Amino acid sequence: MNAMLQVEGVSKHFGGLKALDDCTLNVEQGSITALIGPNGSGKTTLFNLITGFLKATKGRVLFEGREITGLPEHRIANLGIARTFQVSSLFPKLTVWENLLVAYPDQEGESLWSVFTRYGSIRAQEEQQMARVYRSLERIGLTQKMEERAANLSAPEARMLEIGRQLMFSPRLVLLDEPSSGVNPAMLDRLADRIIELNKEGLTFFIIGHNLSFIMKLSHYIHVLHYGKLITSGPPKTVAQDERVIEAYLGVHR
Amino acid sequence: MQFAVYGLIMGCILLLATVGFSMIRRVEGFLNIAHGQMLAVGGYSCYVFNSLLGWNIISSALAAVLVTSVIGYLVAYVVFFPLKGKPPLLIAIASTGASYIIQGLIEVIFGPFVKQYKFPPMRAIKIGDFSLAAPDQIAMVVAAGFAALFLHFLLTRTETGKAIRAMASNFNLARIRGINTPRLRIYVWLIASALGGLAGVMIGLISRLAPYMGWEYIMLIMIVAILGGLGSIYGAMVAALIIGLITQMSVLVIPPQYSQVIAFAIIIVVLLVRPQGIFKEA
Amino acid sequence: MYNILLFLAGVISLIGIYTLLTLAVNLHYGYAGLLSFGIVGFVAVGAYTYAIVTRGAPVGEDVYHFYFNQPWWVGFLAAGMVTTIFAFIIGLPTLRVQGDYLLIVTFAFAEVIQDLLSNEGYLTNGTRGFINIHQPFRELIPGRNYQLFLAGFIVVIVVIVFLIAQRVGTAPFGRTLRAMRDNEPAALSIGKNVYRFKMEIFLLGAAICGFAGAMYTWYMTLALPSLFGMSVSFAAWIAIIVGGQGNNKGAIVGTIVLLGAQQALKFISTSPELTPMVSSFELILEGLVLIVILRFWPSGLIPEKSPRPPKLAKITEEA
């Protein structure tokens, strides 16, 4: 199995604070890999580093064998890595299909002048992009609700829409930041099923999670962070029984 | 020299008016355009007590401040409290509606003409050949100074004050921690409106009352608020004095009609150079 | 009968002009979430630009120095262009920062413009203003029939602007604009240049106001500083809140309702003693309506409708 994403010896210092300390981990191609750890263990910082939002103090990141450390965000995005955020990135008053269509970068018709001068080519572009939109809608299971406003979606549907928007750019690796947050426990299964289906289609997932039962059910492999350090990795069963993991979580909760 | 004194007084008036405006911006999160009308309410209330009922000026002023603070709170209760949670721009629009209503009522009750207090103009105190300031002008500056100090002590030394600051920083956290937010909100509105009312009384003393005075001043208030940093109370104080002095003293160099233009130019410059204003929104 | 027609023509002209303002407010606020209170400032700039450009030499006690004696359509275009320049200058620093600042700056802009209009006599003839405004095609249509023509002319322009606004709304530009309005950080994170979008719509709205300003002088046949007070801005705002934000039809409906009510009130106030009272009551009423609508029907009479998805040319397998 290939390592799609390789994080090697990555550290991130903020002043005196070590947010990440010499982290080395891999995400296998075709897997659903999770990153867990108590609050403040550096999970989101690692995501930010991988996507180019932050620069690493030390170490490097490789994607499909290529080094991507230090590349600007939009370049990394163009290489095939997508990422969702904890905070909603949806546009509530726009419909589902609009939320997807608007994500296309560098569209014609986005400047006022072209709205009137390039009527024909705008229409052609819209029709072309709608094809992608429909495809995305199918993959996330929201075709029926395409004309619904984003604000009216249920929490798991909203999460899927966020993923769906990322899918418009045909990524190969998707970083999900806390996909289960804000989702009713009763609906979590639905969300998990969708992610599994997308994974079967060939998408690799790297997920930050807090809801341990959700993560355990979903992932093939788990990395555990604590105070910026990687303390263990392994399949869910092994990690669940690991002394250090239990201590990390319980220790913090005390 | 007269201009400097006048500038100082204008600065004090703006200080009182804008501090109240900033408090509301901090705690409630929107730009309360109706705040300008608190000046009008204060000025006209004082007129009622002074010219219509014949009270002396000090009692009228105090009564006016009290009346204004209550009216300000009532307006908030009826108009703004039900809208809490809506986008702040929408509430700002509602505040313009409230401004309209208040101005309309003032026009209906008092008529569209300007009014004056029954208060004799006082001569300036002279030191040697130097004309310093009239006793009433000095009294106003002192009053404003007291109000500012009082506010400072209130906010930093008392439990209530600290609770208000906590609420201003993070409303929900304060509520969860047990701070009595509904009651504190009432206090904030009462204090802010009272300050506005006091400013209005002072305007009536140095100049005249007109139904549109609320609109006249709200623009200056907002400019002062930006200069001082939107939501910063101390910034508002400093900025008020600066703008007061600049607009009055610029008369020495530039014809007086341009004082508004100068204020406008100031904010454009501020926005270009340092949008957070003098003190950041702490 | 003819007189009723004339009266109606006047009302339609006024409603038409205000509809342009409300459409502009819809573009700024309904589509882009920009709180621009200074609409009347742009209207004033447009009106006076038109007046100055089409003006002849000063007579009698006029004090103005500048006049260009151009035909009406030059003045009309100039009105739009000059207003756009002003909007650009204001927008440059202000659109970069939070929405609150735009409110204050545009508010201040309108006030300052009104001040300047009264004071800069060499440019604007001060409080005397400009009378005998050059109306389009006036020479062709003598007498009172001109009112009817003007109403029709204005309606045609309004329809054109409406179509423009509709097109802007449904194009990718409009979609991104609404996205930016809904969730600006998210729009930034998908790579949209938010600042550019804001500036472009701000300029468009301002230009429309500038043209409306010129048209206002056609209707009034004069330009005075007192015509361009904040009440004009607020009328447009009340109209959009009543009619419905975020959609152009709502803008039209709101304007008709508001101005219809205002004209009706004017009808009622018959005696001259009552007139100042009535205007005060009008203020109170408008404020009340605004607050009540914001409280109970914040979407307005015609809520924003989501557009239908574009059709696919052919169903493709390609993903």
Describe the structure.
The complex is a heterotrimer of chains A (254), B (282) and C (319). With 254 residues, chain A is α/β, with parallel strands linked by helices. Chain A has helices at residues 43-50, 73-78, 96-101, 112-117, 119-140, 155-167, 188-200, 212-218, 236-241, 243-253; strands spanning 3-14, 17-28, 32-36, 58-63, 66-67, 81-83, 173-177, 204-208, 221-226, 229-234. Chain B is mainly alpha-helical. Chain B has a two-stranded antiparallel ribbon with strand order 1-2. In chain B, helix 1 (2-28) runs antiparallel to helix 8 (181-206) and helix 5 (135-157) packs antiparallel against helix 8 (181-206). Chain B is globular. The model of chain B has no long low-confidence stretch (mean pLDDT 81). In chain C, strands 1-2 form a two-stranded antiparallel ribbon. Chain C is mostly helical and 319 residues long. Chain C has one domain: ABC transporter involved in vitamin B12 uptake, BtuC, CATH 1.10.3470. The model of chain C is unreliable at 314-319 (pLDDT under 50). Chain B binds chain C through residues 31, 79, 82-83, 86, 88-90, 92-94, 96-105, 107-108, 112, 215, 219, 222-223, 225-226, 230, 257-258, 260-261, 263-264, 267-268, 271-272, 275, and chain C through 29, 33, 35, 90, 93-94, 96-97, 99-101, 103-105, 107-109, 111-112, 115-116, 118-119, 230, 234, 237-238, 241, 276-277, 279-291, 294-295, 298.
Layout of helices and strands:
The complex is a heterotrimer of chains A (254), B (282) and C (319).
Chain A: E1 3-14, E2 17-28, E3 32-36, H1 43-50, E4 58-63, E5 66-67, H2 73-78, E6 81-83, H3 96-101, H4 112-117, H5 119-140, H6 155-167, E7 173-177, H7 188-200, E8 204-208, H8 212-218, E9 221-226, E10 229-234, H9 236-241, H10 243-253
Parallel strand pairs in A: 3-8, 3-9, 6-7, 7-8
Antiparallel strand pairs in A: 1-2, 1-4, 4-5, 9-10
Helix pairs in contact in A: 5-6, 6-7
Chain B: H1 2-28, H2 35-52, H3 57-80, H4 88-110, E1 125-127, E2 130-133, H5 135-157, H6 159-169, H7 171-176, H8 181-206, H9 213-228, H10 233-249, H11 259-273
Antiparallel strand pairs in B: 1-2
Helix pairs in contact in B: 1-5, 1-6, 1-8, 1-9, 1-10, 2-3, 2-4, 2-8, 2-9, 3-8, 5-6, 5-8, 6-8, 9-10, 9-11
Chain C: H1 2-31, H2 39-54, H3 72-94, H4 99-119, H5 121-124, E1 130-131, H6 145-170, H7 172-182, H8 184-189, H9 194-220, E2 222-223, H10 230-243, H11 248-268, H12 274-296
Antiparallel strand pairs in C: 1-2
Helix pairs in contact in C: 1-6, 1-9, 1-10, 1-11, 2-3, 2-4, 2-9, 3-9, 6-7, 6-9, 10-11
